[in-house]
Design goal:
Elements lengths: L1 E11 H10 L7 E6 L2 E4 L9 E10 L11 E2 L4 E8 L2 H6 L12 H10 L3 H9 L4 E8 L4 E5 L8 E4 L5 E5 L2 H5 L7 E2 L4 E4 L2 E4 L18 H20 L6 E3 L4 H12 L5 E6 L4 H13 L3 E5 L2 H15 L4 H19 L4 E3 L4 H5 L5 H7 L1 H28 L4 E3 L5 H9 L16 H9 L4 H4 L6 H4 L2 H7 L5 H9 L1
Parallel strand pairs: 14-15, 14-17, 15-16, 17-18
Antiparallel strand pairs: 1-4, 1-10, 2-3, 2-4, 5-6, 6-7, 7-8, 8-12, 9-10, 9-11, 12-13
Helix pairs in contact: 3-4, 6-14, 6-15, 7-15, 9-10, 10-13, 12-13
Length: 484
Amino acid sequence: MSGIAGLFGDLTGSWLTEMLKKLEHRGPDGSGIYVDGQLFHGETKNLSRREFKVALGQNSLSNAGSEVQQPLVDEERVLVANGRIYNYQELKQSSNYNFRTNIDWEVILSLLDEHGGQLFQAIPKVVERLDGDYAFVVFDGENWAAVRDPVGVKPLYYGAHQGMDLFGVASERKALWEIGIREVDSLNPGFMLCNRELIPLPPRIKKSAPLDPVDNSSHVWLKSKLKADLIRSVQKRIRGLDRVGVVFSGGVDSTILVQICLSLGVKPELYTVGRKGSPDIRFSHEAADIMGLTLYTAQVTEEEVRRCVPLVLEAIEEWNIMKLGVGMATFMAAEQAAENGLRVLLSGQGADELFGGYHRYLELCKEGPVALQNGLWQDLLQIYGVNLERDDAVAMAHSVELRVPYLDLQVINRAMDIPTHYKIRDHNDQLRKCILREVAAELSVPEFIVKRPKKAAQYGSGIHQLLVKKVFKDQRYVDKLKVG
């Protein structure tokens, strides 16, 4: 994981260092800058007196003893990147490229070298071969391109300065705001910016719209394939880690991840957030006891909520009460994980959108399978802006990387192939996510968790109630926040 930044136009080195300073929390283990053909590590103060046309920078977070990821340079290109390429070992083994490091991102340079030609021609061929969650910026000495993964797991923002020839990209909006770029957009997943032009990339996820079957002949097969896909997804995301944690609510989505980790021989640490006696705390304690795992709990109190509100708002970069409530739970879990020296957390994000977890899907179910499938598809397309950017920001505020196994491309495409009847039986199905709960039972998830109804994080933890009925009733506190 990293914080990345890029500037193009008439610029000075000091602007990029100011941006990287705003992104320090995303990569405390190392920093590097590339400016017009030169690479600098650490010491960059002399850059402020020089002018440049291109500057790329990266703050890096290392995991599991991996090399610190800083700008990668070969004879033709320079690359800064954020995230993980899970199939890099396979890509590396099949390549004739002269690798200089063991960093997974170097396979992007090798693939660009293999395909050659202009960036806008080569990158679509490159991303078709990548299995990962990523955002990267590459410069070939003449052209530059910024790319975001097909789902939008990793963030990337961009904007142009209104008063000068200056264009920037960065992992967080605040880095661009810092140098006067006020109008900032989020790069849509599955798109690239090439020399400031937005270009769509070949789609990697599909909107299958299967009709509900007359019989259940495909049910057992689909369930077995889904379970195998989930196991592979988790396996890729914990490979090479000495320790891993799970943002744990005591719900079916997060408990599936825990049981898969256990089946792979890894004992994850569990992190739960909630008020004393709240549903998430009660279910998590009982589940952790049954599974014999260590559970760390962050207790939600009015005082804690007041402390966290400005910190979460700073991280998510917008005044949104719903995002604040949901994000605070992940923020507090990541905070405790960081205090324990943990660098990676798994999250169940995406399961509800793929398998019909939200109560609102019951209304779509009344309209038929096509309407429900369309609703799931639209939510999947919007998940980057609704959930993923928020969760990434609050976790990385503590230098903790959040990984989302349900949003693996193979899992997504399998889920979109599953008939809606296997997800929600009918408009009276109060549990929903039927086939996922069946997978959970096969993975030895405790029965009381398999049958636990969906409870959103802000409600299951009790955070929303404190925010609405206590904290935001204090108008002086709210006014102070808005002024700040």
